[in-house]
Specification:
With 306 residues, this protein is an alpha/beta fold. It has 11 helices and 11 strands. The protein is elongated.
Length: 306
């Protein structure tokens, strides 16, 4: 029961939230109107209606563009979810049925974003030049969180996720390997014992990293617990640090390929330890992808690799 002395909260309006999300992304009423296929006065009228309901502005002028006010930022997560819902319903974009206009939102973990997604984006852009992409990059835990909460419709990850709340489908496998500087004593070894890593200058990934979870679990099976001397939230930066002599690291073979070919790092096998992980697409159970989402997914995972 609502008390008479407490004002009722403004009724949520999905249409207004969708428009808010698009303006926030485009940072312009004019560009948002073009994307949505409606007039700029109509866009402005919708935002005035939203601001009247809230009693506060949601955008402020910034040169030729606009940016969200603190009130607008507070609404942004709900607006993003409304936009995802509109996409799922295939009701937002003009020309969506022919896949000619619109935009796709996806999150990808760092290795996937850096070494798998670029080719897929190029392939997708050739087929859909008028479709915009919003790719968010984080570690596996970040991506899984955004998809599980509904902030984004789907994601691409490189580590294990909670399969109770998410559906994961493998599309590629990747080896995770130990690399050392060329002048490191291990560089002349055919292999090392897992326990030797405990006393090494190990460079690790940040908490929540899919790569980190893979090597920590594999080494824990041998009773090894790593104590990184430094943590770096980017695989390529870690390999570059190894090449510079900062320490040793366990990283994706995709990331190390160019460094190995150039002789800047050396791969040293770990006795009895093989680390292979799956790259997977994730989405919430029962959630269907919009037409353009499926088109990008097909570019990432060609039919022959499903």
């Amino acid at each position: 029961m609502v008390r008479p002395d407490v004002p009722a909260a403004p009724t949520a309006n999905l249409d207004l939230l969708v428009v808010l999300a698009v303006i926030a992304r485009e940072r312009s009423f004019t560009r948002a109107a073009s994307v949505l296929g409606i007039s700029q006065p109509s866009i402005s009228a919708r935002m005035r209606r939203l601001e009247q309901r809230l009693g506060e502005p949601v955008f402020e002028r910034l040169g030729r563009g606009v940016r969200l006010t603190p009130t607008g930022e507070a609404l942004r997560p709900a607006a993003e979810r409304a936009l995802a819902l509109a996409q799922d319903a295939d009701q937002l974009w003009i020309g969506l049925g022919t896949r000619q206009r619109g935009f796709v939102r996806v999150a990808a973990s760092t290795t996937v974003a850096g070494y798998v997604l670029p080719t897929a984006i190029a392939r997708f852009r050739r087929r859909h030049p008028d479709v915009d992409l919003d790719v968010r990059v984080g570690n596996t835990a970040d991506v899984a969180q955004q998809v599980a909460t509904g902030e984004l419709p789907w994601g691409l990850v490189e580590g294990p996720v909670d399969t109770i709340n998410l559906v994961a489908r493998t599309f590629l496998e990747d080896d995770v390997i130990l690399v050392v500087p060329p002048r490191h004593p291990w560089a002349r070894r055919r292999r090392i014992a897992p326990q030797e890593l405990e006393a090494s200058d190990f460079l690790g990934r940040e908490a929540g990293s899919g790569t980190g979870e893979i090597y920590e679990a594999a080494l824990a099976a041998h009773g090894v617990r790593l104590r990184p001397r430094a943590r770096i939230a980017h695989s390529r930066a870690i390999v570059a640090a190894v090449a510079a002599g900062a320490g040793v690291a366990i990283v994706s073979s995709l990331v190390t390929r160019s460094f190995l070919d150039a002789g800047r790092v050396v791969h040293v096998p770990i006795d009895g330890v093989e680390m292979r992980r799956a790259f997977a697409t994730i989405h919430r159970p029962g959630r269907s992808l919009a037409t353009l989402d499926r088109a990008l997914l097909q570019a990432v995972v060609p039919p022959g690799r499903r």
